[in-house]
Amino acid sequence: MIAILRKDAPQDAVDHLLGWIHKKGLETHVSHGANETIVGLVGDTTRIDPFLLESMDIVERVQRVSEPFKKANRKFHPQDTVVDCGLGVKIGGGYFPVIAGPCSVEGDNLIRIARAVKEAGATMLRGGAFKPRTSPYANQGMGERGLDLLCEARDELGMPVVTEIMDPRDVALFVDKGINVMQIGARNAQNFTLLKEVGKTQTPVLLKRGMSETIDELLMAAEYIMSEGNDNVILCERGIRTFETRTRNTFDLNAIPVLHYLSHLPVVADPSHAVGYTRYVPQMALAATAAGADGLEIEVHDDPSHAWSDGAQALTPAQFADTMRRIEAIRAAIA
Ligand code: PEP
Ligand code: MN
């Protein structure tokens, strides 16, 4: 349920209304727009009589929100959310960062790749230190040492870092290291324990869509994080599993405008995991930009044939630089 307040509602009357709602055992989510203030009510709304609420002087109208996601819902928060990723990098509401780097943090090559992607215009650095591998015998990542390498690159280059968290027991480690954005990968997209744990921090979360997750399920996963108090959620379309086998996944570009319609959260697109082959990544990066993504996540490696993981979909620094030029042309064309 949302209550749209009158433009001239005095603050003490607003506070009184919020107190009244809290006493009924519900939470509130207040969004101040240019023309109106919207109070979102979260919890058991059967405890509130909508007619009584609407009869209050400062309330203009009351509307039911039928979707099960509330805090992630655009009805609660009509303006786009802008998530601050640190070091001056923001995402959403017109800010468009490109997150680039290797699939796995592997060692000294990280800083070389980081310098190259920065030079090409990327503003955030990615790299997995804890890797969710299909096989338990495949390289599982560098672990804590990988986080340190990311932080060293961040400190040298001034680029916020994005890295995957797989285990709720690692949240304190990621926070202590000052990781700028915690990524929740497709394989953990509905790991509710993990979602709740990252929700207890204020660190931005890049939440990837699960392999067979519907758009509504993705938004409910975001709701898990937000319901714990962390509103800094970035949604990520990274392809879903379909009957098609020519590409690693099927890039659901539809999801980008649909998510924007349903939610105020920023939407990043990851063409690398979506198509899985280097040759298709540039075109799909351009397509996602044209579809309205708020940013891109792209895997880049300076020696793809020796990459620890996902070499088949990595762009070389030169291919990435060329793609960045074309992304800028698309952005200018749709502005
Ligand atoms: C990754 O970003 O390297 C990754 C494993 O992504 P996803 O969870 O989308 O497969
Ligand atoms: Mn990868």
Q: Describe it for me?
A:
This protein is α/β, with parallel strands linked by helices and 335 residues long. The chain has 2 domains: 2-63, Alpha-Beta Plaits, CATH 3.30.70; 83-334, TIM Barrel (Alpha-Beta Barrel), CATH 3.20.20. It contains 11 helices and 14 strands. It has helices at residues 11-23, 50-54, 109-119, 144-157, 171-177, 192-199, 215-227, 255-262, 271-275, 281-290, 317-334, and strands at residues 2-5, 27-32, 37-42, 59-63, 83-84, 90-91, 98-101, 124-126, 161-164, 181-184, 205-208, 233-237, 267-269, 295-299. The strands form 3 sheets. The protein has an 8-stranded parallel β-barrel, surrounded by 6 helices. A 4-stranded antiparallel sheet has the order 2-3-1-4. Helix 6 (192-199) links the parallel strand 10 (181-184) and strand 11. The model has no long low-confidence stretch (mean pLDDT 97). The structure holds phosphoenolpyruvate (PEP) and manganese (II) ion.
Secondary-structure-derived class:
alpha/beta
Order of helices and strands: EHEEHEEEEHEHEHEHEHEHEHHEH
Tally of helical runs: 11
**Small-molecule binders:** phosphoenolpyruvate, manganese (II) ion
CATH architectural group of the largest domain: Alpha-Beta Barrel
Rg from alpha-carbon coordinates: 21 Å
CATH class of the largest domain: Alpha Beta
User: In whole angstroms, how far apart are the ends?
Assistant: 34 Å
Question: Summary?
Answer:
By secondary structure, the protein is α/β, with parallel strands linked by helices. The protein is 33% helix and 17% strand.
List descriptors.
335 residues, alpha/beta, Alpha-Beta Plaits, TIM Barrel, 8-stranded parallel beta barrel, 4-stranded antiparallel β-sheet, 11 helices, 14 strands, 17% strand, binds phosphoenolpyruvate, binds manganese (II) ion
